[in-house]
């Protein structure tokens, strides 16, 4: 299950246009890979494309379907495809919808945009254990490469210790070690921070990100936050 239940954070690499890159990135060792099924995303991969090319990798890799305000037909199709071990709801989905899908045995990650302490309150409304925190970016629903104040992730973990917090937004090989040392998330999620263009991953950046995404006592205590 992603994220894992131990002290080393999981890593999710998200957003691919080319199915061949999914296989290449999976070989580098992330714990999960996100496939964006939202047609308005710059990293959109149609479900039919994923079904045609990703069946073999789905046998060994934790694939996550990223959905934004999807209708019931797409949610059902993504779940029925057998490709995805988790559905990540990255839009304005309600706690009631999350509860309904969980009752069907579907593992749900709910993504929430945060910009201040008040925006953390919504975490407690959702029944799923896994909560992804992303930067406030109305209308874009993630992938913008923007960070949010990391102290909000720390506060979220303190207020909701039963949740597993996944940190997203503005992460890169250059700051992920600091982010992990500061916030101690269950997992980290990256898209634009390891790309040469939207939806096109730079394998060298992915490798660097994975190497840095580990707890490190060498991170300077006075390292700057976003």
Explain this structure.
The two termini are 30 Å apart. Mean pLDDT is 91; it is low at 215-226. The protein is an alpha/beta fold. The longest helix has 10 residues, at 203-212. 45% of the residues are buried. Helix content is 28%, strand content 20%. An eight-stranded parallel β-barrel has the order 1-2-3-4-5-6-7-8, surrounded by five helices. A two-stranded antiparallel ribbon has the order 9-10. It has eight helices and ten strands.
Topology:
Blueprint: E1 10-14, H1 19-26, E2 32-36, H2 47-53, H3 55-58, E3 63-67, H4 72-80, E4 86-89, H5 95-103, E5 108-114, E6 130-135, H6 151-159, E7 164-167, H7 176-183, E8 187-190, E9 195-197, E10 200-201, H8 203-212
Parallel strand pairs: 1-2, 1-8, 2-3, 3-4, 4-5, 5-6, 6-7, 7-8
Antiparallel strand pairs: 9-10
Q: Total helix count?
A: 8
Structural class, judged by helices and strands? alpha/beta
What percentage of amino acids are in beta strands? 15-25%
Largest sheet: 8 strands, parallel, barrel
Mean pLDDT metric: 91
The span between the termini is 30 Å
What is the β-strand count?
10
* Secondary-structure element pattern, one letter each: EHEHHEHEHEEHEHEEEH
Strand order of the largest sheet: 1-2-3-4-5-6-7-8
Radius of gyration: 16 Å
Shape: globular
Query: Low-confidence parts lasting 5 or more residues at pLDDT below 50?
Result: 215-226
């Amino acid at each position: 299950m992603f994220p894992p239940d131990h002290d080393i954070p999981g890593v999710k690499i998200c957003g691919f246009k080319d199915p061949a890159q999914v296989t290449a990135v999976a070989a580098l060792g992330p714990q999960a890979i996100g496939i964006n099924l939202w047609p308005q995303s710059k990293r959109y991969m149609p479900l039919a494309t994923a079904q045609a090319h990703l069946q073999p990798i789905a046998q060994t890799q934790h694939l996550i379907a990223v959905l934004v305000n999807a209708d019931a037909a797409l949610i059902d199709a993504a779940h029925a495809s057998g490709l995805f071990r988790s559905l990540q709801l990255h839009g304005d989905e309600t706690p009631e919808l999350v509860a309904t899908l969980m009752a069907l045995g579907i593992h749900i990650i709910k993504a929430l945009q945060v910009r201040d302490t008040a925006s953390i309150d919504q975490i407690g409304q959702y029944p799923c254990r896994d909560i992804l925190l992303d930067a406030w970016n109305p209308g874009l629903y993630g992938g913008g490469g923007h960070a949010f104040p990391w102290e909000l992730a720390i506060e979220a973990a303190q207020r909701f210790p039963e949740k597993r917090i996944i940190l997203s937004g503005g992460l890169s090989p250059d700051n992920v070690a600091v982010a992990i040392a500061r916030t101690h998330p269950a997992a980290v999620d990256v898209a634009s921070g390891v790309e040469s263009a939207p939806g096109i991953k730079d394998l060298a950046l992915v490798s660097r990100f994975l190497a840095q995404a580990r707890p490190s006592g060498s991170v300077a205590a006075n390292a700057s936050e976003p």
